[in-house]
Write a structure and sequence with these properties.
The protein has 363 residues and is of the alpha/beta class. The protein has 2 domains: 126 residues, Aspartate Aminotransferase, domain 1; 198 residues, Aspartate Aminotransferase, domain 2 (3-Layer(aba) Sandwich). Helices cover 38% and strands 16% of the residues. The strands form 2 sheets. The protein has a 7-stranded mixed sheet with strand order 2-8-7-6-5-3-4, sandwiched between helices. Strands 1-11-12-10-9 form a 5-stranded mixed sheet, covered by helices on one side. The protein starts with a helix and ends with a helix. The model has no long low-confidence stretch (mean pLDDT 95). It binds pyridoxal-5'-phosphate. The site of pyridoxal-5'-phosphate has 13 residues, from helix 5.
Amino acid sequence: MNQQKQKIKNINQIVKKNILNLIPYQSARLLYKNNINNKILLNANESPIISLFSINNRILNRYPEQQPKKLLNAYSKYINLNNENILITRGADEGIDIIMRTFCEEHDKILFCPPTYDMYRVTANILNIKYLIIFSIKDNWKINFNKIKKNLKNIKIIYFCNPNNPTGNILNQNDIIKLLELTKNKTIIVIDEAYIEFCIDQTMIYFINKYENLIILRTLSKAFGLAGLRCGFILTNKYIINILLKVIAPYPISIPVLDVAIQALNKQNLIIMNNNVKTIINNKKWLIDKLNNCNCVKKIFTSTTNFILVKFNNSNNILNSLNKNNIIVRNQNHEKTLNNCLRITIGTFDECKKLYFILQKIS
Ligand SMILES: *Cc1c(COP(=O)(O)O)cnc(C)c1O
């Protein structure tokens, strides 16, 4: 055995088994490492719209507050809930993690419904928490309510993504409410609302006062166009917030992040955000209309988000042609229910036109 191999073997003996065996999350940035300049990036559901904020507070010698009051105030005003119902996190991804670390004992399981956001699985794997998978019903992507209902034993947390990534659909609110009632005192239901600004009337945040087992996740990464900022929110009752405060790091939110997040939530920038959402939705309508006339497109799934899931006759061909033309989208072919599907983020109108132009040529 050469030195290198021996070294790796020694390290592997020390690492936790679940981490050694972990299939890591494949982020868009990881999957596409090439120079991203001059590329049309429709692979990470980011906003194509650039906003420019400045950092006001240059004094950084002191630690920030664990939960900076000014940002709590700003988000509280935006969503019309109290500060005590909000926990600021380093993106929604940290929210997913903190909730699992707070509620799951060794014998507990979490439940989620693929095809959905992969970080529920990855986080469970990292934390050595077991999970139960109940696939959503193919084609309309409704949750399999009856099967979930029959399998609630030992389930500590259910993660729903609403609207769902990568399918783009909204979940049936009555199904979720029925589950919230069924699982009181037993199971936490987490609703990941990363894309909710694209269909804000579907939010379930106001149910947190009614159901003590409901937790909502939010982020500034998608509609707000601040994926690079790393700022998200957990919304739930004040008792759960107080418990989560024991688990989150003592200083999770850096002062530059705080500065920018507060600006993003002021009245004027909220108007801009809402206009950007409308622009993206209009671009989406245009693109869907055009793609419906492309021979290579088999099906476009209904989407209430800033992306569309598209089934092609041969998605690998499409992926290659788009790649050659510097357009990067997200392959979903690995998911057994999503063969020949690609997830396409809605870009600027110009980007949508370029995409259509290429797909039309393939058809
Ligand atoms: C993008 C995304 C996240 C991650 O959000 P961050 O705030 O950037 O960590 C969480 N959930 C879903 C469903 C997402 O699509």
